[in-house]
Amino acid sequence: MKAAIAEMEKAFGVTGLTINDVGNYVDNFYCSFHLQREFNPIFTGEYRPEYDMLRTVAYYVGGFGTDLQVNSTITPYFSVTLENMKKVIKGQSDLRLVVFSSHDMQIANTLIGLRLTDAKCVWDRYLNQSTRDCVWEYPEFTSSVIFELHKDDAGAYSVRTRYSGKYMRMSFCNNSDTCSFDQFRIYMESTIRSTYMDDCGVPEVTKPEVIDEPAAPIGLIIPLCLVSALLCLIIIYEVYRFVKRRKEENVAGPYRTNVEEVV
Q1: N or C end of the chain: smaller count of CB under 10 Å?
Q2: What string of pLDDT tens digits covers the 263 residues of the chain?
Q3: Which residues constitute the domain of residue 58?
Q4: How far apart are CA 39 and CA 138, in angstroms?
């Protein structure tokens, strides 16, 4: 690992790179790679596995290093997902498909929130010491997490979870790739935090005070409406008379002139 960092420092002419620095360099590499831009060849060399691992560990430790970080950041998404499922089960919704667009860090957040991976898992995997079946590669472009709500012939509901097309075995469902809805619900509710806004240091948004203005009395509204309607009718009638008079003048004008000439 030290040799990989030293090689990166040499390639970019810098010193004292931290794991977070390496992660940012690697992130820029993948952006350039997928946008078909030029990038430093060291990222495709012998140290690429180390760079990938360092980026993943750096991001996972920095963003999701504690249970509080994980649960607070995943609460909004888990809350909406669970609520949608509850409504479908209760017959209060006919949703068939819900799609959320996200960045790689939101996918990572979801995987960690489901206890499918973490920084230690990635590190152990790199050292070939991992005994856990976890997602150790960082989410790449087109990665996805899909929750499927199933109903069997007996009317029982279950949930299956896919990561990039593969059904995942969930630790909170006896390491099965199929959870009963109750198992899924209990776990989701255990991670959802009611105070996640405070956890994230987001100040409470106070709604502006609404001043109720007194409504106009009904006895005044009806006469105003009648007067307005009458004025509209008068205007329409006067316009009609004006147009009719002009037509009559246009027809009669030439006729009078001819008669005067004949006389």
Answers
A1: C
A2: 889 999 999 989 999 999 899 989 998 888 888 888 888 888 888 888 888 999 999 989 888 888 888 999 899 999 999 999 999 999 999 999 999 999 999 999 999 999 999 998 888 888 877 667 789 889 988 999 999 999 999 999 999 999 999 999 999 999 999 999 999 999 999 999 888 777 777 776 665 665 555 555 666 677 777 878 888 888 888 877 877 777 776 655 554 444 344 33
A3: 1-64
A4: 20
Place of tokens 């989701």: 188
> Residue 112 sits in a domain of what CATH number?
3.40.50.1240
Tokens 């004292």 correspond to what residue? Answer: 16
Q: Give the Cα separation of 160 and 178 in Å (integer).
A: 5
Report how many helices (DSSP H) and strands (DSSP E) the chain contains, helices first.
9, 4
Question: How is residue 262 written in tokens?
Answer: 């004949």
Q: Which residue's structure tokens are 């004006």? A: 242
**Are residues 73 and 174 located together in one domain of the fold?**
yes
